[in-house]
Amino acid sequence: MNVLERIVEATHKEVRRRREEVPLSELEAHLAVRGDDRPFSEALTRPGISVIAEHKRRSPSAGEIRKGSTVEEIVAAYERGGAAALSILTEGPHFAGSLDDLRAAQDSCRLPILRKDFLVDVYQVYESAAWGADAILLIVAALDDDELTLLHREALTLDLDVLVEVHDEEELSRALEGLDADVIGINNRDLTDFSVDVQRTYDLLSDVPAGKTVVSESGFHDRAQLEDLERVGVDAVLIGESLMRAPDPADALRDLTDHHDSEPL
């Protein structure tokens, strides 16, 4: 069993536990009191390349990333540094995230928020909306076609934007032909072994039709990389670990987004 399969299996168990603690009907009741809309997809298409800055406590490959930091201080730094949107990793067993992190981020800034997790059940879609997400991540590799279609449809029904993540040509075909997804995330990290290859974005980009929003995920540490992606038509990048490890995440973001030379993080 590879890393992704282990995480998905653990997620199914965790969702069953949470569903017993908080029934779906209770989540639905919270939807009526959702806050102001913060359009996630629109934030990715502003002039220049947009940065989705991620809060991530740990990962299976890197271990603990920034000991002693709080969600509030990190997302405030991201907002000061010019992030277009936030990604909040809420998976618990492998990444030490939680829905409390999502709520803390929502309360601490005005940026649109992506709930980054391994969504495998409609319950999690309602959970995302109830806890303050503006968008969700759907990982094509973690879902069959029926699951993908159902979760995507439910998200749009709840007025959540969807970042549909792919890693190879077959997954991209499923995202485009099966869903006609508007926002395509190309993950440079192979979730079966967590290796990273930024060339993955360049290899798949030519197969993405015009008019789609493209997000390149993982493996970025300097401005030159973002400039290259911007030249070939990538709309946004998702960056987590390098920003989380930076002495000052706001300064690190400015170095990435401002048009001046910067040192690698």
From TrEMBL:
Q: Which pathway, metabolic or otherwise, does it act in?
A: Amino-acid biosynthesis; L-tryptophan biosynthesis; L-tryptophan from chorismate: step 4/5
Alphabetical list of Pfam families matching this protein: IGPS (PF00218)
According to UniProt, the reaction catalysed is:
1-(2-carboxyphenylamino)-1-deoxy-D-ribulose 5-phosphate + H(+) = (1S,2R)-1-C-(indol-3-yl)glycerol 3-phosphate + CO2 + H2O
Matching InterPro entries? Aldolase_TIM, Indole-3-glycerol_P_synth, Indole-3-glycerol_P_synth_dom, RibuloseP-bd_barrel
What GO molecular functions are on record for this protein?
A: indole-3-glycerol-phosphate synthase activity; phosphoribosylanthranilate isomerase activity
- The main enzyme category here is lyase
Q: Name one GO biological process term.
A: L-tryptophan biosynthetic process
Sorted UniProt keywords = Amino-acid biosynthesis, Aromatic amino acid biosynthesis, Decarboxylase, Lyase, Tryptophan biosynthesis
Q: What is its EC number?
A: 4.1.1.48
* Domain spans labelled Indole-3-glycerol phosphate synthase: 4-256
Family as reported in the entry's similarity comment: Belongs to the TrpC family.
Protein name as annotated: Indole-3-glycerol phosphate synthase
The lineage is:
Bacteria, Bacillati, Actinomycetota, Thermoleophilia, Solirubrobacterales
